[in-house]
């Protein structure tokens, strides 16, 4: 574990908390452009918006990892009472010839990025670095960055405007409660539950150990897959519903690079099945053609 305390150049320090966040700092920086130390000795918590202070309300419970999806059932651990699961309903995407593509697939936005080249080189396991440590570090940093990005647009994710957690017209994510009932939640509530659950996982020493001598549990990779799947759903919702806000704030280069980094990471370590990526598959294929994702 001590190796992570010596890593340099892979992102901002993870020791910042809500009141330490610099509202002028970039939400995402290419890992090779930062010289500040990165440590995983302190797990993250949900952060406030850099521009608004909405996300200060406390969530009473955090969702467990998803174990039910359409057509596929994933075995999981017994869920505590009042905790929930998630499922997804989707239909095949149909692209009519006359259909206008979403903004994130239009030029110049689809080609806007911070750097050129493939992100594969920065997600590959470095020499002498423990496999579990490297996976945990990337999950940790991705969550921090995604949490901050969501904080920017959280005030706009109201129940009135977004009464469901959708990722385009063909995908809607449902919540399975403790009674096994699939319910439709407003996107903001769904995302709050997911972010709280991930934060709880990252702060759990039995799942993400940070102390010297701590060993990763046998189900560590399964937890990482569930976390990655849930983070992808947030990416998909933002791309399909809030990308114009990202563009308005001139953050599309950071957002696209962050997403390409994330997809390169989950592809390198097979954390999400390609079928799960359907809501953003046209974008992913475009980034693959550009050489950003190998």
UniProtKB/TrEMBL annotation:
Subcellular location: Cytoplasm; Nucleus
Annotated SMART domains: Mob1_phocein
Gene Ontology annotations for the cellular component aspect, listed alphabetically: cell cortex; cell division site; cellular bud neck; cellular bud tip; mating projection tip; nucleus; serine/threonine protein kinase complex
InterPro entries, A to Z: MOB_kinase_act_fam, MOB_kinase_act_sf
Alphabetical list of Pfam families matching this protein: Mob1_phocein
A GO term for molecular function: protein kinase activator activity
Keywords, ordered alphabetically: Cell cycle, Cell division, Cytoplasm, Metal-binding, Mitosis, Nucleus, Phosphoprotein, Zinc
Chain positions recorded as Zn(2+) binding sites: 237, 242
One GO-annotated biological process of the protein: septum digestion after cytokinesis
Location (main, coarse): cytoplasm
Bias-annotated ranges (Polar residues): 31-67
Region of interest (Disordered), ranges: 1-96
Oligomer status and interactors: Interacts with protein kinase CBK1 to form the RAM CBK1-MOB2 kinase complex.
Family note: Belongs to the MOB1/phocein family.
Name listed for the protein in its UniProt record: CBK1 kinase activator protein MOB2
Originating organism: Suhomyces tanzawaensis NRRL Y-17324
